[in-house]
Design goal:
There is one protein chain. The chain is of the alpha+beta class. The protein contains eight helices and 13 strands. The chain is globular.
Length: 309
């Protein structure tokens, strides 16, 4: 019996981004049922529960749910004036919850009349804002040489509100008693080959700081097809990690065309690969990333989301 197997696991995020993992698995993981293999695929983002894979899980969620085509995605940074600075994590979470509620009410009020009059929307359903928000802070610890970092929030936001309307919601009180909670910076999201990986890296850059992230309801999970344990051998994986790690033709020959079923395909371009070597076990783990440029998809084919393989 083979003592080592190499797993090929694809993670398809939306219509534009895909990652392929090549890694060693045990014979028990190879023999596992389809359900257990899917559970293994889902756990790739949280292997060893370390900081790097937590960031990876965040990146997958962002790539699956936020795209450049809609042109409504904004990167929002929220800070507090000294008099409104929360003292606890619970208070910070309560404030950000109130802010999200205000955004939803403002958007509902803005489009209520138009949507209810729309014959294609007979129920008058008002869409809510879509978001991922990371709350970050750090308490002072002189023994560990850690300086205090005040509570602040990083947000990826998709909504139909202007920058001024978003800033108006970061406030407390009403009418003449209304006061801003602090400073708000809004920037239009700049995607790099279908990804906001750089921004996800930025908002989780310091592993020593404490943070908590949450998301709006209804966000989709990335698609992870059934893994393939028979395509690579340890020798071929080592070659991919060393000889071909930056060879775009090598990777695109293997993963440049994704079959979606019913004769539909999606064309991917190689954007990069990372190889990590475990000196204790002598095993490689390669992660390759790909981008499906919407402008260069096969004509006459649907640029669909559902992946068959």
């Amino acid at each position: 019996m083979k003592s080592r197997f190499i797993r090929e696991q694809k993670t398809i995020c939306g219509k534009e981004y895909m990652e392929v993992d090549l890694l060693h698995v045990s014979p028990a993981e190879h023999r596992a049922s389809i359900r257990r293999k899917k559970a293994f695929a889902s756990s790739l983002a949280m292997q060893n529960c370390n900081e790097r894979n937590s960031r990876r899980h965040l990146h997958w969620t962002v790539a699956e749910n936020f795209t450049e085509r809609k042109n409504h995605t904004q990167l929002v940074h929220l800070t507090y004036a000294p008099e409104w600075l929360p003292l606890t994590e619970e208070e910070a979470e309560r404030i950000i919850t109130n802010f999200i509620d205000k955004l939803n009410r403002r958007q509902a009020k803005k489009y209520a009349t138009a949507l209810k009059a729309d014959p294609s929307n007979p129920g008058g359903v008002l869409p809510k804002v879509k978001y991922i928000v990371v709350t970050e802070w750090q308490h002072e610890d002189k023994a560990a040489c850690l300086k205090e970092v005040r509570y602040h929030h990083h947000m990826i936001l998709e909504c139909d509100l202007t920058t001024d309307e978003i800033k108006d919601c970061w406030s407390t009180g009403r009418g003449k008693w209304r006061e801003p909670l602090g400073l708000v910076k809004c920037d239009r999201a700049e995607f790099n080959k279908g990804s906001l990986a750089a921004y996800c890296e930025y908002i989780t850059k310091n592993p020593k700081r404490r943070r908590r992230w949450r998301q709006s309801q209804g966000l989709r999970r990335p698609t992870q097809p059934r893994p393939n344990d028979g395509r690579y051998t340890p020798k071929k994986l080592a070659e991919a990690a060393t000889l071909y790690i930056d060879d775009a033709q090598f990777w695109e020959n293997r993963y440049g065309t994704l079959k979606l079923g019913r004769g539909q395909v999606r064309q991917y371009a190689f954007t990069g690969a990372e190889a990590r070597y475990n000196e204790i076990t002598g095993e490689w783990h390669v992660t390759a990333t790909f981008w499906a440029d919407p402008r260069r998809q096969p004509k006459g084919k649907t640029h669909g989301r559902k992946a068959g393989t």
